[in-house]
Amino acid sequence: MDRREAVMGTGLLALAGLATALAAAAEESPHVHHGSGHKALADAAGTCVATGQACLDHCIDLMGNGHKELAACAKSVTQLVSLCNALQNLANQDSKYLVKLASVTMEACHDCDEECKKHADKHEVCKRCGEACAACYKECKALAS
Questions:
Q1: Is the Cβ–Cβ distance between 98 and 77 less than 8 Å?
Q2: Cα(66)–Cα(52) distance, integer angstroms
Q3: Residue 13 contacts by C-beta under 8 Å, 6 or more apart in sequence?
Q4: Alpha-carbon distance 103 to 99, whole Å?
């Protein structure tokens, strides 16, 4: 082994030791997430996105088979998914725009829930979407008031 290899090996050992020390320090210190004060809102918005996407897919399938009565539901849920996706992101960031977006999203949640109720007895996916909208509405209202 030449001098260069010895120096390089020593450097690698030092880096390995540093990595081990950093990992141990990370385990000992508490890990804090920013925006965690809005976890319930972020979770509710995320659920709205997931159930809304399923509802939209269902509406599109049925509209493809001639069920035009689901067009309003599809439009409502499309808008809801866009807003709830943004709401979830801003809640996780503890954004200064969160309260304003929550008030707009609250209205979209209400409208989507009302639209889903029209189909909830026939389509389970619409029922789940409406329930998610109602839960997100509640979280938005708690923040906005």
A1: no
A2: 21
A3: none
A4: 6
